[in-house]
Design a protein that fits this description.
Chain lengths: 164, 68
């Protein structure tokens, strides 16, 4: 649809026309903000906590433990130098040799969600699978934060009360 | 010829002086959710009369839902 629109604009004598090919879906999946009636209901990106502990590949387990001690969380997220989410550390991995690189100790393959995802459907999936938190990344895999199920449940309840 | 704009570049073009962001989806979809600052000109209504409010010499960035 947008290619036709872009050509139409050119035919109407607009001189500098761009077709944003990835469109609204991609923009929202980057978590770059939105307007409209749907914006009254928070999405995953708007509820994701940004203050979660983060370490870089190349840091040590001891570094991760220090990040954690100051935060109150029980997991540490790992990114590369570009901010791309690579994995996380939790449980026994955090109790290991403090000089070990997080690269070796991390769990990879974690499930991630996009910021544009609807919270109510995600909460149902998280509850069904016993998941307390989930990592939020943008369309390109860059870490945004973590959605805590408890936060999401409260938001869903608040929205349902508003509807009644 | 219109320029294709990818995700890495869209905000740079939007930051240009007078850039105009246009959603060409049906008005109902725009009402529900649109990009900040976008205006609605559904493709079906895109003609000389619907673009009178736009500046012909400033950048125009059009978008729909995704790769359609």
């Amino acid at each position: 649809m947008s290619p036709r629109a872009a050509w139409r604009f050119e035919s109407l004598d607009f001189t500098d026309v761009y077709d944003f090919v990835p469109g609204k879906a991609a923009w929202l999946a980057m978590g770059w903000g939105r307007e409209g009636t749907a914006a009254a209901t928070p999405n995953v990106g708007e509820l994701a906590r940004r203050d979660v502990p983060v370490c870089r590949l190349g840091d040590t387990v001891g570094d991760a433990r220090r990040e954690l001690d100051e935060s109150g969380y029980d997991f540490c997220l790992l990114t590369n130098e570009e901010g791309i989410f690579m994995g996380h550390l939790r449980g026994d991995a955090l109790a290991g040799d403090p000089s070990e690189l997080v690269d070796q100790a991390m769990e990879g393959g974690s499930t991630t969600v996009r910021p544009s995802e609807h919270v109510d459907a995600l909460v149902k999936r998280m509850t069904k699978r016993g998941v307390k938190s989930i990592v939020v990344t943008d369309l390109k895999g860059k870490l945004i934060g973590a959605l805590i199920r408890e936060d999401a449940e409260k938001a869903v309840e608040a929205h349902q009360s508003d509807d009644h | 010829m219109p320029n294709d704009l990818e995700i890495d570049d869209v905000r740079d073009v939007l930051a240009r002086d007078g850039a105009q962001l246009v959603e060409v989806l049906p008005a109902q979809e725009y009402e529900e959710e649109h990009l900040p600052g976008a205006i609605s000109i559904p493709l079906k209504t895109l003609d000389e009369s619907s673009v009178t409010k736009l500046n012909h010499d400033a950048p125009v960035i059009v978008y729909c839902h995704d790769y359609q």
